[in-house]
Amino acid sequence: MFKKIALATAGLAVAASAVFAASHADPAIAGAVKARQSHMQLYAHNLGILGNMAQGKTEYDAVAAAAAADNLEALSLLSQAGYWPMESDAMSIEGTRALPALWEDMGAVSEKSGALVEAAQAMAAVAGTDLTALQGAMGALGGACGGCHKAFRQSQ
Amino acid sequence: MKRLLIVLVCLGLLGLGVFWFITAPQTSDAAEIDALVPNVDQGAAVFVAAGCASCHSAEWAEGDAKFELTGGRAFPSDFGTFYAPNISPDPEFGIGDWTALDLVNAMKHGVSPQGQHYFPAFPYSAYANATDQDVVSLYAYLKTLPPMQMNNKPHDVGFPFNIRRSLGGWKFLFQPDGWIIADAPTPELERGRYLVEALGHCGECHTPRNALGGLKTNEWLGGAPNPSGRGTIPNITPGKLTWSEIDLMGYFTTGFTPEFDSVGGHMAEVVQNLSQMPESDLNAIIAYLKAVPPVGE
């Protein structure tokens, strides 16, 4: 009697743990997703420093602006090769808005990444000069970010 | 019994006659249009504000390719999928053989040069409030763009929505008569209303629709489900949109939200156009958005 109950419980436990395991993403993929989203947050933080100065919400500070712009340039040049494993798109897993199109057209991806590098370098060249120059360089950054998001990020 | 049949047939014919009358295509007066003098620079500004390239250039077009108005972009909806036509000045594949009156009738009345109704995926309900002068100037500007040899893709619309004549009924029922927001007390608000309601056709995405696809104008700009399936298009009335004027100007010129996320999806196309518009026009749009009746919350 006991043995039957024990066996049944063990069977249920195995089944339950299989379901539990299946509902958790491959940790390698989860790690890549977290890394790329953190990378985007680093962009947002540094863009915020520049953008708030551009919009007059904070005082223009040449040193802080130059530092943020240099960060953006460095971030744009980092290799993202490890951020986008196969099967980590929005159709395959939860928790990401990356569209399958991102994996389909590497030419477009590298072109758009290049646009961000250019825009970031243009900003880094002038961010510490004066506010007007900084303001002038914001548009190209926005356009570069939007270029990828337009094509490769799922709408909310 | 025979009398009943005769009465029914007469009523049926009468009904058909009324239907035919109501759904008849409207057109503008040729003499009025011919009297206007086009301004190509003004046409270029209208091209940006009305967002022609965002729908009529190819799907992945960037940079100069945005002036190659080949059409072909798909617009899924509850009624089927529509494909934007070629509006380059090619006389065979595009609209190179159109007169200015043809463009006015298309944009303001939704009627083709052959007298057929267009599907309202083309936002003629909004463009109906554009000035004839702006459309005539746009006509002149479109002529300066490169002719493109690309065939139009037929719409993928099933019965009964593919009966073009019935769109006359749709227009009769749902085409707004004049401005949505009747009061625009300052010149800036008037300009903002013109840019949002007429040229920018913002309401086409940002306003919810009824079951037959007509706009629910009492919830103007109150947000709607995304017609391509996933997600929602936001409520941009003061009922939900709490961004400041500075935030909005930043968004229109760079696509950055106040948290420095960056715009994506179709709105990225809109920002590409907005960022080319003069600051006074953007201020007018912002003033209008701050003044529309709040929906929700």
Defining key terms:
heterodimer; A: 156 residues; mainly alpha; 6 helices; 72% helix; B: 297 residues; 2 domains; three-stranded antiparallel sheet; 5 strands
Rounded mean pLDDT of chain B is 94
Helix content of chain A: over 70%
Q: Describe the sheet with the most strands of chain A.
A: none
The quaternary structure here is heterodimer
Give the total of domains of chain B: 2
What would the CATH topology of chain A be? Four Helix Bundle (Hemerythrin (Met), subunit A)
N-to-C order of helices and strands of chain A: HHHHHH
Helix-strand layout with pairing:
The complex is a heterodimer of chains A (156) and B (297).
Chain A lengths: L1 H21 L4 H28 L7 H16 L23 H4 L1 H21 L4 H22 L4
Chain B lengths: L1 H21 L7 H5 L5 H11 L1 H5 L17 E4 L2 E4 L16 H10 L14 H4 L4 H11 L13 E2 L8 H9 L12 H13 L3 H4 L17 E2 L6 E2 L11 H10 L10 H10 L4 H13 L6
Antiparallel strand pairs in B: 1-2, 2-3, 4-5
Helix pairs in contact in B: 3-7, 5-7, 9-13, 11-13
Q: In summary, what is this structure?
A:
Chain A is mostly helical and about 160 residues long. Chain A contains 6 helices and no strands.
Protein described:
With 156 residues, chain A is mostly helical. Chain A has one domain (26-152): Cytochrome c/b562 (Four Helix Bundle (Hemerythrin (Met), subunit A), Up-down Bundle), CATH 1.20.120. Chain A is built from six helices and no strands. Chain A has helices spanning 2-22, 27-54, 62-77, 101-104, 106-126, 131-152. In chain A, helix 5 (106-126) runs antiparallel to helix 6 (131-152). The longest helix of chain A is centred in the N-terminal third of the chain and has 28 residues, at 27-54. Chain A is elongated, with a radius of gyration of 22 Å. Chain A starts with a helix and ends with a helix. Residues 19-23 of chain A have low confidence and may be disordered. Chain B has 297 residues and is mostly helical. Chain B folds into two domains: 27-174; 195-291, no CATH class. Chain B has 13 helices and five strands. Chain B has helices spanning 2-22, 30-34, 40-50, 52-56, 100-109, 124-127, 132-142, 166-174, 187-199, 203-206, 245-254, 265-274, 279-291, and strands at 74-77, 80-83, 156-157, 224-225, 232-233. In chain B, the strands form two sheets. Chain B has a three-stranded antiparallel beta sheet, with no helix packed on it. In chain B, a hairpin with a 6-residue loop joins strand 4 and strand 5 (232-233). In chain B, helix 3 (40-50) crosses helix 7 and helix 9 crosses helix 13. The mean pLDDT of chain B is 94. The A-B interface holds A 43-45, 47-48, 51, 54-57, 108, 138-139, 141-143, 145-147, 149-151, 153-156 and B 60, 62, 226, 228, 230-232, 246-247, 249-250, 253-256, 259-266, 268-269, 271-272, 275.
